[in-house]
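From the methods appendix. Each design record in this collection lists the discretized structure first, followed by the designed amino acid sequence. Records were kept in a plain field format so they could be parsed without special tools. The example shown here is representative of the layout used throughout.

RECORD:
C-ALPHA CELLS (262 positions):
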C-alpha cells in the first residue's frame, strides 16, 4: 500500500495564535474561507457499485499540535464523483471506497477547519493521512500577508520531498499554469511562517497560493540538478512531471512533489 502523510509545515509557528473553537458554530471565522458543503457528494448514490473500487484509509489530525491531535467527525468524500462519504472515528481514522480507475480526489470537511481537496491516483491501495488547518489559523496567515481571503476562490498548498527519505526539500520553486493572477503566490514557508520575499522553498519544503480563481491548473516543481514529479499518493513516475490541480471555492487543494536525480 502507498501511504502518504500530507504534513504541510505551513503556519506551524502561528497555529496556536487563533482559537478555532470559537468558529465551530458558523464554520468560519473572520478572514477565513467558507466551508462550502457543495464539495460533498450525494449520499444517496452510495449504493451504486457498478464500477470497480479500492479502499483508502488514513488518519486526520489537527495541524500544528504536538503530538498530533486526532480529529473525529471529519467528513471524507470522493470528489467529484458521487460515490459516498465516510466519517472519521474518535481516533481520527477513516476508511472509504473510491473508484479504482482514473485520477480523482478526496475532500476532508469539518466545521471550524479549512476544507481540503487531496488528489489521488488509484488503482493501487492508498493511505492518506492529513492535517487539517483551523480556519482561525488561515485567517491569521492571511493577515500576516496583508491579504483578505476571498471565499469564492480556492487555495493551493504544495510541498516537495525527497522520495527516499520523505524529508522536505529546500531550493524548489513552484509554477502554476495558467498564472492565477497577481498576489496569489507562491508564498514560500520558512520556519512555519510565509515569506513573501522568498523565491524558493526553505527547509520547510512548502508553499501556499491564496485566492486562486476557481478552475483547473497544472503545477510544476523545479530543483537544480533534479527531476521533480507529482506525488499524489502514488508511486513516483519520472515521466509524470506536472500535477493537475483544481481550485474549488473556499477549499484548500493539497498536492506533493518528489525530486530526485535524473
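DESIGN:
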Amino acid at each position: 500500500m502507498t501511504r502518504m502523510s500530507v504534513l504541510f509545515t505551513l503556519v506551524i509557528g502561528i497555529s496556536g495564535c487563533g482559537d478555532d473553537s470559537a468558529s465551530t458554530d458558523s464554520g468560519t471565522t473572520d478572514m477565513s474561507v467558507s466551508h462550502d458543503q457543495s464539495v460533498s457528494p450525494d449520499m444517496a448514490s452510495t449504493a451504486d457499485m457498478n464500477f470497480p473500487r479500492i479502499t483508502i484509509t488514513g488518519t486526520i489530525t489537527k495541524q500544528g499540535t504536538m503530538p498530533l491531535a486526532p480529529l473525529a467527525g471529519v467528513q471524507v468524500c470522493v470528489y467529484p464523483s458521487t460515490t459516498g462519504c465516510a466519517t472519521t472515528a474518535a481516533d481520527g481514522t477513516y476508511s472509504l471506497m473510491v473508484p479504482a480507475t482514473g485520477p480523482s480526489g478526496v475532500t476532508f470537511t469539518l466545521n471550524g477547519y479549512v476544507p481540503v481537496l487531496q488528489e489521488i491516483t488509484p488503482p493501487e491501495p492508498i493511505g492518506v493521512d492529513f492535517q487539517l488547518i483551523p480556519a482561525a489559523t488561515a485567517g491569521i496567515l492571511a493577515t500576516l500577508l496583508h491579504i483578505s481571503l476571498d471565499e469564492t476562490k480556492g487555495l493551493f498548498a504544495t510541498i516537495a520531498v525527497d522520495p527516499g527519505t520523505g524529508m522536505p526539500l529546500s531550493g524548489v520553486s513552484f509554477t502554476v499554469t495558467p498564472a492565477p493572477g497577481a498576489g496569489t503566490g507562491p508564498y514560500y514557508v520558512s520556519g512555519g511562517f510565509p515569506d513573501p520575499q522568498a523565491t524558493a522553498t526553505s527547509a520547510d519544503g512548502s508553499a501556499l497560493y491564496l485566492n486562486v480563481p476557481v478552475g483547473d491548473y497544472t503545477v510544476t516543481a523545479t530543483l537544480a540538478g533534479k527531476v521533480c514529479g507529482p506525488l499524489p499518493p502514488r508511486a513516483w513516475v519520472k515521466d509524470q512531471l506536472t500535477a493537475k490541480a483544481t481550485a474549488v471555492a473556499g477549499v484548500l487543494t493539497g498536492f506533493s512533489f518528489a525530486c530526485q536525480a535524473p
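APPENDIX NOTE: Residues 2-260 form a domain with the Immunoglobulin-like fold (CATH 2.60.40.10).
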